[in-house]
């Protein structure tokens, strides 16, 4: 025997209503569903705004529901604690709800959801509307939303002594179906009447409602056939890597909705990967448990937008990866093994391949889709024609991928477009195909075929070429077909196929085509710089990856070691002892520890290093680099007036450091203008015209924009423009003002820095600047004693108490052997090649010279010397 109501019970129920109101979720009120719908072609910004609007709407709806629920709680409390006889408060109906056995089992209802009480105010819509009544029931018995049900109503049995007996749960006697609004109204009316009659026995009108499964409701849809006998994907012993794309002719009307559909449909397969959906189509790179691969393919075929439009079907990697291999096939994260994909991301984008074209073309008409084996024969024929000297009959084979991809692997005879990003393709094509006859055979390929659809469409529709073919399914399909159908054939693709999952490459042949950006050694390893602010994709050998802590340059390495730039997740090379931002960094050497505890190098230095590598690759090892550069900046900051002379500008890396330091020195003593005659001033001399041109272009940027981000961007743009676009400075010198004129700067193009310096020391010649505080000797290494002599012989070049800094005084450590007399006789190793011998001879000769310089300068009474074992050795010499 239970009382119909207890205050605590009601409070608990209403509290649960608050929760359930917010729990409407995605299948909830129409407001949310409609705001999620995206019409037309939304831009990313619009998508973000739409999502924000949805979040806001949801938040507001939640807020309103909470408020309503609170108000209702308050009212109910007041009602319950006031006397029920009061005529001023509305009457509350007590509805006992019980759910039939069939529904209980079908919906797996918990104890509390099988039966319970709902309290309804007399004034509410619930007493007149079936929908409102069902809505009220939903809010208490949430599981009911998943089924269609019908209601029947009756009343509790009240005995004469006042005992209330609720009718049995499956009772039908005295119950009537409640299927219309009238039924609802009648039920409550009768409850009122009954209450009026039994007021002395009841606290409030009471109703019993039975919930039964609607026998006429359609059965829930059966799962698709392919899922019915599908094995458990968790039991798969291997994962298959695959990719596909589709450009459905009518496009995808609602990409957001379609993305949601894909997520739902693919969930049972436990597939992982990255999928882009746009109005123009779908582009997917995925891995699927091999034991459900067939079912996955069927599923994709049954999706209308994919089925017939997946050009070449699904591109499947020839070899599945065992689950163990898959777990480590990606680029390691923080030195720990990682899989190529961790989750399934289905994302909506403006385009599935960002092309940068003003308007989209007809992607259905993009040239002939050439099957891989036909392609193989054609490439072989082209090779033979070239070998026979009849290349004019060979088709043009265009590699539509970016430089970092083509440089680790390509088809024989292919012409790379040398683009940094796909958007650059169109300009390059216009240039490359300017003189090609319109009917010339053009063959093109890319990784999986999708980029060729766009390039093929452009070349045929915009440029008018008539004989265009594309490698169907790209290199991935070629690799698979060749290994399936012609294993004995030698692949015409050489090297590694760069792929866009965590593996970053699959070797098709053993050829190593790429070269390390740091040391130029042969390698096919592609990775991304770990400096988050840089993150450039690069080809770097494992040794340099380890030495540079997964970064592309000294400056990036310095920033990562400083912990200021967190390593990007998922892209750390193996063997690199780095932890994420929140963890402490494990330093592998004292050098690294020292850099890790020095202030970070400003990002312009990374650009300066990079520009040098890109514009004058053969000399890129000559730049001072981060540790030495920081020391030079500090020394210039310590100088009296910030007056510095540099011999050997090269591309201006050290010049930039010296300018930075000179400006610090000038600011400390409050000097606002510097030039040849007085104040902070950096003068630098270089004899190589090309290096001088690059240095002038770079220092002009620093003079205009300082050492900040703006300068970094301008330096980056300079690199992208290429060496051809850097003007040649035939002038003898260029004058600049740095830091708003605080530091004067003059760059000299000289025939011989030593000759110019000796003239300065002798008081002859046109250039007669006031003496310097610091002279950095970094030009030819064979005449170091002459350079220092010019500084010491008079005070016209270097002030008394000033410093000379000489670079490379330890000469790769060879001075040690030189000092032991090992190179005295210059005996050559007869087994080494001529080139090696020449290199060794030069290195030994220079080591002897360096050793002689170090030995003589330290004995010179006019100076005090400190040799620092930094980088290649720096000698810091104070003029007494
Ligand atoms: C080691 S690099 C200088 C690197 C530069 N200081 C830096 O840190 O980026 C040496 C440069 O000195 C130049 N050089 C060599 N002999 C020279 C000479 N006699 N006169 C002027 N420049 C010279 C070379 O052309 C080369 O660019």
Oligomer designation: single chain
Which percent bin holds the helix content?
A: 25-40%
Bound molecules: S-adenosylmethionine
Ends apart, CA distance between termini:
108 Å
Note the beta-strand portion. 15-25%
Biggest sheet features: 8 strands, mixed
Strand segment tally = 31
The residue ranges in which pLDDT falls below 50 over 5 or more consecutive positions are 1-39, 565-584
Any idea how many domains?
A: 5
The class by helix and strand makeup works out as: alpha/beta
| Rg (C-alpha, Å) | 39 Å
Determine the mean pLDDT.
82
Count helical runs: 29
What strand line-up does the widest sheet have?
26-27-25-24-28-29-31-30
Query: What is the overall shape?
Result: elongated
Task: Give a written overview of the molecule.
The structure is a single chain. This protein has 880 residues and is α/β, with parallel strands linked by helices. It has five domains: 7-213, no CATH class; 227-348, Alpha-Beta Plaits; 368-495, Rhodanese-like domain (Oxidized Rhodanese, domain 1), CATH 3.40.250.10; 526-596, no CATH class; 604-807, Vaccinia Virus protein VP39 (Rossmann fold, 3-Layer(aba) Sandwich). The chain contains 29 helices and 31 strands. The strands form seven sheets. An eight-stranded mixed β-sheet has the order 26-27-25-24-28-29-31-30, sandwiched between helices. Strands 8, 9, 10, 11, 12 and 13 form a six-stranded mixed β-sheet that branches. Strand 24 (643-647), helix 23 and strand 25 form a beta-alpha-beta unit. It is elongated. The termini are far apart. The structure holds S-adenosylmethionine (SAM). S-adenosylmethionine is lined by residues 622-624, 648, 650, 653-654, 685-688, 691, 750, 752-754, 778-780.
